[in-house]
Amino acid sequence: MIDLDEIIEHFSKSISTLRGEISIRYFEGTSGVQLASDVFLKEANGKIWKTFENPVVIENLSGTRQFAKYVEARVDKKIHAKVIIPAYEHSPWIKDVIEHKDKYLLEIFLVSPKEYPLEASIAISSPWVLIIVAKKQKPFALLIKNEPLSVTVESIHDMVWNRFAN
Prior knowledge:
Elements: H1 4-11, E1 14-16, E2 23-28, H2 29-43, E3 48-52, H3 55-76, E4 80-86, H4 92-99, E5 106-111, E6 121-125, E7 128-133, E8 140-145, H5 147-165
Parallel strand pairs: 3-4, 4-5
Antiparallel strand pairs: 1-2, 2-8, 3-6, 6-7, 7-8
Helix pairs in contact: 2-3
């Protein structure tokens, strides 16, 4: 049985249409996840990112130091983030981030992990979508550039966000 990772690797690390309507890049491993995140930070020029995060998973994969550097780089670019986090409890580092959310240019909603189980982190800054699956055994990231997809994922984020904002 062939899995998705093998199929993607077999065809290419990058898929794009001739008209440039979509670009999909696959990044494998911890270093690949970091590289995809760095590309997203560089290319996604919007001033507000909308994200679904499971920081515990990312924290376990790359550590708090690397994650903190990334947050600082985002803040240096003056990019705000609207973050939806499914959790009841957090590590001391995440508690500190939540406590100092204004410093980190964050708006955060905590949601039930039972109602909104997130196995992946998703960041949207049109036309970009970054998807990170940070499982220890086989972490990977997909970096997708496609306006209709980013608008759709952003709409889903807005629906969840607005549910808790009202």
